[in-house]
Amino acid sequence: MAVLLATMYTGVNLNADLGTGVYDRFRTLRIWQPVPIGDALRYLLASALVGGLGLLLGYRPGGGAGGMVLAIVLVVVFALAFSWVFTLLGLVVRSSNAIMSLAVVVLFPLTLASNAFVDPHTMPGWLRAFVQVNPVTRLVTTTRAAMDGTATPTQVGVVVAASAFLIAVFGPLTMRAYRRHS
Q: Is the sign of the CA dihedral 84, 87, 88, 93 positive or negative?
């Protein structure tokens, strides 16, 4: 949840840069514009903090270090894909505050209506149906399995496919908005 919440800052920072003119100055430099290194580092730091805190509190993953690394890689890949949503919002929404408000509308239902905190079998049928198709549920299930050492290639493939779907849908929309903004 911490990493997914950090995805909104991609759009917030882009929107702030657009508003202050920093973005226009960067466009004059010879750099590859959609470089995601800063975002990846932010997501890695958030993952390391959460994972480190879990280890400090006594969590010992059955999958060992390899399972932890796989879980972190999956979370970072999914977060990078999900950040395209907020990159698009950063280009089309007028203020950073509006992006944060939209982030609450988008992120809280996805994270809270998942299996991150509650077993879906205890939920009403209509909510369980949403939770079962929620991509965050798939991510949570797969990262838990990776840390336990029981992740299957199918589980990993579903998370990668969901990430690819997000990029396939929001990547072109974002690049179109980027070209319009230029």
A: positive
Q: Residues near 39 by Cβ (< 8 Å), separated by ≥ 6?
A: 7, 10, 79, 80, 83
Least confident of 23-32, 63-72, 142-151: 23-32
CB 146 within 8 A of CB 67: yes
Tokens linked to 62: 């059955």
The model's pTM is: 0.86
**Structure letter (DSSP) for residue 21:** T
Angle between helices 64-92 and 96-112 (to 10 degrees): 140
Confidence (pLDDT) at 3: 85
Q: Is 152 helix (H, G, I), strand (E, B) or coil?
A: coil
The whole-angstrom separation of Cα 130 and Cα 99 is 24
Among the residues of 21-95, which ranges form H helices? Answer: 22-27, 37-56, 64-92
Phi, psi of 145 (to 5 degrees): -65, -40
Could you tell me if 72 and 153 are in contact, meaning their C-beta atoms sit under 8 angstroms apart? Answer: no
User: How does DSSP classify residue 121?
Assistant: G
